[in-house]
Structure formats: C-alpha cells, structure tokens
Amino acid sequence: MTTPENPNDVVASGTPGTDLTTHPERFTDPGMPEHQLRSTDTDPRAAKRAERTVIILFVLSILGAIGTIVAYVALPLTDDPSTVKAANLGLGLGLTISLLGIGFAAVHWAKTLMSDHEVAEKRKPVASSQEDRVAAVQALNDGVRDSGIGRRGVLKGAMISALALFPLTIAVPLVGNLGGDWKVSKFRHTIWSKGTRLAQDPSGRPIKAADVTIGSVFHVIPDGLREHSHWLEEKAKSIVLLVRIDERELKTTEKTKDWHYNGIVAYSKICTHVGCPVALYEQQTHHLLCPCHQSTFDVADGAKVVFGPAKRPLPQLPITVDDEGYLVAQADFDEPVGPSYWERLK
C-alpha cells in the first residue's frame, strides 16, 4: 500500500498524491442528449393515427358531457331511494367520461403531436427585459405552431367543443335547482311525534322505562317504523341513542329540564359534523364518541361537544312515559338532525 507524502492528500484509484478536496471552478457542460425522434415525427401515417386518437378522446368527452345533462333531466330525484342510485350512477359516469376524455386527449396530444425537443435555458434575472418578453411571446407562438393546432382543424374543433361542453355538466344542475326544490325541509323533521313509543333497533320491541338501568345503552327507532313507506330513509334521520345516568349527574337547562325521565335521556345518533353514527359510549365519563373523526359529546350535559370537529351538540329527543310505562316521545327534535346545510338557521 502506498502512503501519501502529504497527509492532507487522499490517494484514489491507486494514484498517490491525488487531492480530492480540490474542486474545479467549472465542470464541462455535458450538453443535451441526442434527440430521439418519435414515430409521429417521421411517419405521417402515425401522426394521422395519433391525431384521430386525440379527436376520438375529445368526442368521448363531448358525449360524456351530453350524457351527464341527459341523466340530470331524465333521472330526476324522487322519494324512492332507487332513483337516487340511478341518478348518481348516471351523473357520475357522465362526469367521469367527460373529464377522462379531456385528460387523456391532452396527454396523448402532448406526447405524440406536440414538439418534444429538449430545451435548456440559463437562469435569468427575475425582472425580464422587454427583449425577453418579446422572446417569450415568440416562444408561445412557436409552441402553438409546434402543436399543429393551426393545421388540424378537426382536432381543434373537438378540443374546443369538449372544453366548452364540460362546464355545462356543472352549470345545468346548478341553475336547474336555483329555483327548484332541494327538499331541505326533509332535514328539518323526522317521524318522531308526541306519543310515539321508543323501540329497540332492530327488533322494534317497545322499551319500558323499568328496563333501562343506570349505565345501559339502547339503540332506538320509532315504534312502527317499518310500516312507513320510506322507512329506511326515515330511519336514517330518526335513529336515537338512549342512555340512563344518575339523575344527580344530569345537567339541564330551563328548556330541557323536563326532556328526560328519571335520568333517561335520548339523543340523535347522527353526528353534527358529517353525519356519521355516534354510538361509542363511555359509562364513567358519560362521553359519546363518533368513530369517524373523534368528535366527543357529553351526554350528562346536553350532549355538548367536548372534543373534535363537531360544532353543535347532538339534538335531544324529549321523552316521557305513557300510562303503560313505555317510553314515548314528547315531540319531534326541536332542531334539524345531522350536519349543517345552507338553509339551516342554527
């Protein structure tokens, strides 16, 4: 092994005295790699095939946009849940085809027909001179010329049509509903009413107050729910969680002091954040947790929010007992259940 005379020198590749700590001021510019021509650059037939492919993709986008509008008109939403599925499917497929058509067409156009010559530019000052601005405009004009859009009229027409029609997939449903019925009133009320018995979910068996012990939890639906013509939709709004706690630990207001029965309280299971089912109850703290985003509500204190993104307490269902000892609702919820929406006042 050879030892360098100067300890600061590092021997590399077996050559003594090579100082790797010394760097050259400049490196040799390796230059641009050799440009590889594409088939569309050398074969006019390949370029024509690529152009037809781009046109077909834009036409698919146009058909998707038209299909979205047709689906919106031909598949109106009704109270039947099956129409919601059909409408969502039609609108979703139309939007997907329209967007993917534009995206794939743009990518294929750029890869096969636009100029792909490598260009290297030196760094320039942030403030461009007038000459640089003129050069930039010229570069843009060169790019338009290289794209071939000027001599490909059909392709240009397909692109403009696709881009012009796609906004209608959003504008038509929006404008069509500005003066229409968004059915927001359905969110304001449930089928709970005075005298409706509280029943276990899913059995539908009415619940007696004597069956509810301290610390117990019941998942509750309105009695006779399945007799409703749209019972699944109504269940989604009226589902309730019933809990009994020590009445001495219960905090009430002047408004809610009569909404419980011997410490038995009922709250909507629909989280006021984004509508997930709130059903994880911690008996020691009386906290109710939403599993989706960890919003936490205090059952002993009007289901107020103690943690998480939810901004409002869970709506409380006022309850009492009937002559037979069954738990019944005093009325519907005093406010809409679930997340906020644009016409909600609180």
TrEMBL record:
Ranges of biased composition (kind: Basic and acidic residues): 35-45
Keyword Iron on entry: yes
Family statement drawn from the similarity comment of this UniProt entry: Belongs to the Rieske iron-sulfur protein family.
Disordered: annotated segments: 1-45
Name recorded for this polypeptide: Cytochrome bc1 complex Rieske iron-sulfur subunit
CDD domains in UniProt: Rieske
This protein's record includes keyword Zinc: no
Primary role: Iron-sulfur subunit of the cytochrome bc1 complex, an essential component of the respiratory electron transport chain required for ATP synthesis. The bc1 complex catalyzes the oxidation of menaquinol and the reduction of cytochrome c in the respiratory chain. The bc1 complex operates through a Q-cycle mechanism that couples electron transfer to generation of the proton gradient that drives ATP synthesis.
Gene Ontology cellular-component annotations: plasma membrane
Subcellular location: Cell membrane
Gene3D superfamilies: Rieske [2Fe-2S] iron-sulphur domain
Membrane-related topology note: Multi-pass membrane protein
Keywords from the UniProt entry: 2Fe-2S, Cell membrane, Disulfide bond, Electron transport, Iron, Iron-sulfur, Membrane, Metal-binding, Oxidoreductase, Respiratory chain, Transmembrane, Transmembrane helix, Transport
Transmembrane intervals: 54-75, 87-107, 154-176
Species of the source: Flavimobilis marinus
Residue ranges of domain Rieske in the record: 264-328
PROSITE patterns recorded: RIESKE (PS51296)
Pfam families (UniProt xref): QcrA_N (PF19297), Rieske (PF00355)
Cofactor: [2Fe-2S] cluster
GO molecular function per UniProt: 2 iron, 2 sulfur cluster binding; metal ion binding; monooxygenase activity; oxidoreductase activity, acting on paired donors, with incorporation or reduction of molecular oxygen
